[in-house]
Hints:
Layout: H1 2-52, H2 55-71, H3 77-98, H4 111-116, H5 119-143, E1 150-153, E2 157-160, H6 162-239, H7 242-252, E3 256-260, E4 266-270, H8 273-278, H9 288-292, H10 298-311, H11 318-323, E5 330-335, E6 340-354, E7 357-367, H12 369-387, H13 400-422, H14 428-452, H15 455-472, H16 483-516, H17 523-536, H18 549-565, E8 569-574, H19 581-602, H20 606-611, E9 618-626, E10 632-638, H21 645-654, H22 660-665, H23 668-673, H24 695-705, E11 709-715, E12 719-726, H25 729-732
Parallel strand pairs: 8-9
Antiparallel strand pairs: 1-2, 3-4, 3-7, 5-6, 6-7, 9-10, 10-12, 11-12
Amino acid sequence: MKASFKWSRAQRSPALFGAALLVFAFAVLWPGFRLAGRLDDTTAALRLVSEQRRQAEVVAGALVSVRDRLESFGYVDEPLGEVRNGVAELDGLLRTLTADTSGAGAFATSPGRAVQGSEALRGDVDALEKGWAEYRKALVPIAAFQGVPYADSEAAGVQLNEAGRVLAQEARKAIVSARKQGPLLSAALAKVSTGLEAESTRLSSYLRLLMLAALVGAIALGVGLVYFLVVRRRQAVLLADAQRQTHDILDTVKEGLFLLDERGRIGATHSGSMQRLFKREDLAGISFEDLLKPIVPAKTLQTAIRFVEVLWSERTKENLVKSINPLQEVEVSFDTGGGQETRWLEFDFHRVKSDGKLVNLLVSVNDVTQRVRLARELAESREKAQSQVDTLLGVLHVNPQQLRSFLSDSDAAMKMVNAMLREPAREESAFRRKLDSIFRQIHSIKGEAAALGLGTVESRAHEFEDALKEAREKPTLSGGDFLPLVVKLDDLFTHLASIGDLVSRLAQLNYGAASVDEDGDGATAAAARAATVAAVTPAPSAIRGADDPISQTLSQLIEHVGRDRGKLARLVAEGLGEVPAAYKRAVKDIAVQAVRNALVHGIEAPDFRERSGKAAVGSIKVGFRGEGPNGYRLVIEDDGAGISLRKIREAAVRRGILTSEDAARLESKQLLSLLFRSGFSTQEVADEDAGRGVGMNVIAELVKELSGRVGVSTGEGRYTRFTIVLPAIEAAAAMPAEDVA
């Protein structure tokens, strides 16, 4: 009965709302319609009166013209016509304003209805009608004149005839009347016009108030409608059939769900995913054995059947049995007609009890193929990394101090990437930010690896960037898109760990060699030292400046990238040995990205430089200096091709960042700021050194983290200069990060 009452109430809701809508229409819309009609009538009356306000003056002027032309024996038809027209117009005005409007339709405009609806206006029109009646008496003889007012004779010439003399006399009388009645008539017309204007204003105000009330009423009705819909929906959900709800849920879930009875048969109700997972439709009523028999080996099938039988035993503890589930990751094979398709399924079993008695087993099935394949790929990647340990002997040419610093920094960066991958995210924007952050960390590792000549690390980092780029180009992102990155991360992590292990073993080996030579003549130790010096001494790359680790790293980077790209450049380093410990890693990362960018995009090929009047060997200057309480200044400058604003505009339009019109309007400072945007690059095809749109973004983010600011200046064909200003160490934590300029 209770449900029936609610349903009847829900049925009444639309009727109540319809009745409320009719009341609203009658109470608000009909008065609004009537007000709009009265306003239309008043406007029409006001327009008529305004058109006739000067008729009295026109008629008076015409009378004077009639008199003057009669005295001069002139042509009088024109002024007489003006008198007749004025009389007709004023007569028509008064007829309209005083007409009986009882038969006028509600949709027809009636100026007379506007006058008759206002007592004040009726009084003004009555006064106008009386004044016009007096004035009209003097005008009627003139308006009624027909014929010729002159007589022509040879003796007397042109003279007024009898009708002309009467007309002249009536004209003089009418002029006298016009001087008396004309101003009164004009004043009466003005008063009627003013009254109509006041009435129009009043009606407009009432109409606005009524429309406001209509708006409030409409909002109230809308709220009421939403409320009724919500209530109705809630009641419909409560009364929905439970079996239909279950069917909807089972059709929606991605898991395979079904019930097994005591005989091991599948129930009639199961999730829609079952047909996709097992590639068959006849599931209801078949046994669990028949379900698995075509797709698993016989041994697996026997184990599964015994496991299900154990689950039906009341004495068996469910958690204990589930821990030895043989179907947690089972390989299945389907005949597709053109071959075998192999997948991996995960089965999970739950007991279903009613009144304390076991009645069914709820079985859930998940497709874990991707997880299994990724795990196997991960294992293969680890084996591959282990097998390549011997190739890492190439690290011997790297300065041990630089190598240790690189491994330490890379370890911190990799742990940060791992933390980013594990950080939960749900929104699209959060996934995008996570990708950009990981991109910056990997790009920094890649840049320093290139500087040190660690090609195996550089290539793995580049492969990681390929995976990141593929994910970033997807229209939508989800947590599953980050799973392939875990494999790449583990590969790089394992490779770096192998290098670290190798460095540790080499250090122990060197220490052992030195210990063995303690009782000898020193030849072994000397040879080891000589080999070490030969290994860590940089190739002649024309370094000028302090022999500090940052300068050595940058010199090796110039040599490595320059060799690959057929370019020559020398590094001029100043003050890099004076970088505070708190800023060393950041300054090194910034310098690596900027110098790599200068060599790739700025420094030209030697023959091109010579044709341009430049030295064949380019110059890249990196200077660091303290500025007291103002902090520190890092300047990276090259004498290369400079930055082409045209190329920035074209790249921004090509990548869909700006329209052609917007790009054309941007100033040079705004265009240069695009260089620091994540994913932006003027290079169309990415390679190991450039084109990802990450390097400059790394610089911007590092400067921002240090609460500094970065500026760019360039002269096309002459130079590019990056100026980074960092706050004093003690003030850095308290200062907000500056925007890229």
